[in-house]
Amino acid sequence: MTAFQTTHAFSGFSVDDIDAARTFYAETLGLDVTTNAMGFLDIRLAPGGSILVYAKPNHTPASFTILNFPVDDVDAAVDDLNDRGVVTKIYTDPDFGTDDKGIARGGGRGPDIAWFTDPAGNVLSVLSAAPPA
Asked: Which domain of life is it from (predicted)?
């Protein structure tokens, strides 16, 4: 038997304000968030994945997308996020090709995707769960 195991593997990222992160992930996004004994956040994802979120005083937002949410309808998901106060139009660079809603249309080159940030500036996304027809 190998000592290295992948059972119960999890991802993690830092934030600068654990309370703001708890509010955003639990209340704004509606994820299952608990606080562990060390004061870190445990975000439970279906069907059993998890993410550890920890406070870091000198936090620098990730320069890449840290968490992707596949959805059946990107437009509806963006509308829902916008209704919750989440800004999805975070890129104005024409290379990303986002529309007025902040959605980069895949056009057969990839999925439709919209990016947004958490309170710590980390980038998240909603993207098409299935390739466009």
From this structure: Bacteria
